[in-house]
Amino acid sequence: MSLKIAVMPGDGIGIEITAEAVKILQHYKRSGRLDVEMDEAPVGGAGYDAAGKPLPDETLALAKASDAILFGAIGGPEYDSLARELRPEKGLLGLRAELDLFANLRPAILYPQLADASSLKPEIVAGLDIMIVRELTGGIYFGQPRGIETDASGERKGFNTLVYKEGEVDRISRVAFDIAMKRDKRLCSVDKANVLEVSELWREVVINAGKDYPEVELSHMYVDNAAMQLVKWPKQFDVMVTKNMFGDILSDCAAMLTGSIGMLPSASLDADSKGMYEPIHGSAPDIAGKGVANPLATILSVAMMLRYSLDHAELADEIDVAVGRVLDKGLRTPDIMAEGCKEVGTIEMGEAVLAEL
Length: 357
Ligand code: NAD
Hints:
Layout: E1 3-10, H1 13-30, E2 36-40, H2 45-51, H3 57-65, E3 68-73, H4 88-98, E4 103-109, H5 122-125, E5 129-135, E6 147-150, E7 156-159, H6 166-181, E8 186-191, H7 197-210, E9 217-222, H8 223-232, E10 239-242, H9 244-257, E11 265-269, E12 275-279, H10 296-308, H11 313-328, E13 331-332, E14 342-343, H12 346-356
Parallel strand pairs: 1-2, 1-3, 3-12, 5-10, 8-9, 8-10, 13-14
Antiparallel strand pairs: 4-5, 4-11, 6-7, 11-12
The structure holds nicotinamide-adenine-dinucleotide.
């Protein structure tokens, strides 16, 4: 039976970069190496335009019926004044919640060819290869109660709740341990156990899960120190696991160590490794429609999809190598442009990767 992929370009540069990533999947389909069917659906602002809400019913149904989802990016200034539940972000959050995509995998890899693009010294970041595993469907972004209230004196207060159940911590730590087993077998769990009870429980559950992974060297770090260490000596880390909000912040920090937001893919997985794959960046309204967006993060997201959901690691490896070769040839989109290199646009970069394949 064919594998089913839902393609959701979304808004802004999402449309341009997804088109290049789809070409890679079509190439494998044409050559008979991947039995795949692709269907496209609107999400985010495009969902609102098409059906009056950021996650139209048909889009959700397609996502549920698919083996994997290729997601571009959502958002744009034209949607900023909509009511909160109609905003593009709700489309993304809705998919994560509806599909129970609780494990967010965010690699921060620095291709040696781009070592100069980082704001840190090349010797600190060259060869960087970290995997951050972020819990994605729990924690303070979802905890109840939440809101803004006015007390008797007329003063307003805003509040959110940081809550994790043991089961939620256990399943995300096992995803992280499994990934560590396929890498350098080192896992650092990031928490704030010195201050937060929820972190105390988190640490206890991670340690317990670790008993099933005796080969993995488990360490713990407070989140403030982790932020510092990521900038000081990032190569000390192999796999990191952390709760939703800490992961949100740390993974952006790790991403910037690599110089460009346009290079980094991500995966969000459910308990059966069904997943949604997307670049970590947004819809970049400032460059949308100009044909200059870097499509490599989305192309590398396809590689992650092949590796984690579609069981075609050999094709994923090929894509990784092809991207390296294109960089070796000196082709660069403006976001990663350097002296002596050749500047290319979105389509040219996509075609160059295809040519290498
Ligand atoms: P952004 O990631 O869209 O852009 C930040 C900067 O990085 C911009 O200067 C942009 O031009 C550049 N950039 C991003 N991707 C690039 C690429 N592939 N190639 C070259 N340059 C690239 O973040 P933002 O500007 O804060 O947000 C813009 C919109 O995207 C907002 O509506 C926001 O809500 C949304 N957003 C969506 C997602 C998502 O879809 N997952 C994530 C973040 C932000």
